[in-house]
Design goal:
about 350 residues; eight-stranded mixed beta sheet; alpha/beta; about 15% strand
Length: about 350
């Protein structure tokens, strides 16, 4: 991919900032470093780390990078771009279901083709990541294949994003989508007693928030059987912002502001004293100190309130691949998720 072609794809939104920032990061766990240190410093010096500004910066100033760095960066993005399987699989029928009036207030429901059990199919409800401002419900990779292949229905929820919708409204969207699935479970062929909520990154934060704070689901929170979190780190917002100031400025301040009361209100750990969903699987990337600390802290608070919370550290993956590689072969996080579902 030539630099001009890459710049056009960035401008058109075909390459999201969420792909750009991980490309800059130093890879750990034996993975390849896509950019050398000099090139990473050059890009950060030129554009900073603010995801919302990175696209326009690279479009307008990318030619200021050295030829060596431009080549590295374009090749790095090409390696990290999702394959065709990151969008909706063509071989599994899906049904788009609106739960609100906005275009993003829609969920995609995938159902197994096997004979429906009398109680209905158990269901995994997935919330995509993207820093509360990017992403959409088509970002499912091979997850429908994984869960449908095991006899579970799978729903991928779209929700409104920043700056249109603050995090509070995003959580309300998630709750509305879950309520739609629960109230129409019989017509949809879903077992309302076996509904699992799963989220990655910002989606993990939203999954944890609606599964701890009854302000969103109210009495329906008791109907959620379990929660799976994939490498979230916003469970205690104030602590995350204090411990990672660079990320806080670019990602957390736009999402959570600077008011400590609001930050606490939107932190799942604040609400973990009960009532909560009773069973949790919390996965995090082993090399991420913030995700490790936040995952363990949330699990401890949930256990203290009587919930069962299992934390598992995943080595050899990064923040993107722990989600992207779920269901792609025999790996630790796929085994952990599969074993968790077998408990229901």
């Amino acid at each position: 991919m030539r630099w001009k072609t890459f710049a056009l794809m960035v401008t058109a939104g075909l390459i999201a900032p969420a792909l750009i920032v991980p490309t800059l990061a130093q890879q750990r766990g034996g993975r390849e470093r896509l950019l050398d240190r000099e090139c990473r410093r050059e890009i950060v010096k030129l554009c900073g780390l603010n995801r919302s500004e990175m696209r326009s910066c690279l479009r307008e100033r990318g030619d200021e990078l050295s030829e060596r760095c431009k080549t590295q960066f374009v090749e790095g993005i090409a390696k990290r771009r999702p394959t065709a399987r990151t969008s909706q699989p063509s071989d599994i029928p899906l049904r788009a279901i609106a739960y609100g009036t906005a275009a993003q207030q829609t969920l995609d429901l995938y159902l197994p083709q096997a004979e429906r059990p009398a109680s209905g199919y158990p269901l995994v409800v997935y919330l995509h990541g993207g820093g509360w401002r990017n992403g959409d419900r088509s970002m499912v990779q091979q997850k429908p294949d994984l869960f449908v292949g095991k006899g579970w229905a799978f729903a991928s929820v779209g929700y409104r994003l920043l700056p249109e919708a603050p995090v509070e409204q995003q959580a309300e969207d998630v709750a509305s989508a879950l309520r739609k699935l629960l109230t129409q479970s019989q017509a949809l062929g879903i077992d309302p007693a076996r509904v699992i909520v799963m989220g990655h990154s910002a989606g993990a934060h939203l999954a944890a928030l609606v599964s701890t704070d009854p302000a969103y689901l109210k009495s329906d929170m008791d109907r959620i059987a379990g929660v799976i979190l994939l490498d979230g780190a916003g469970y205690d917002v104030a602590r995350q912002m204090r411990d990672t100031p660079m990320i806080a400025k670019s990602l957390y301040v736009p999402a959570f502001g600077t008011d400590p009361a609001r930050q606490a209100r939107l932190s799942p750990i604040t609400h973990a004293a009960a009532p909560n969903v009773s069973r949790w699987l919390i996965l995090h990337v082993a090399s991420r100190q913030d995700a490790t600390e936040q995952s363990n802290a949330l699990a401890a608070a949930l256990r203290a309130a009587g919930s069962k919370a299992v934390v598992q550290s995943i080595a050899g993956e990064n923040h993107m691949t722990i989600n992207r590689q779920l269901g792609a072969g025999d790996n630790a996080h796929t085994r952990a998720v599969t074993a968790f579902l077998e408990e229901f």
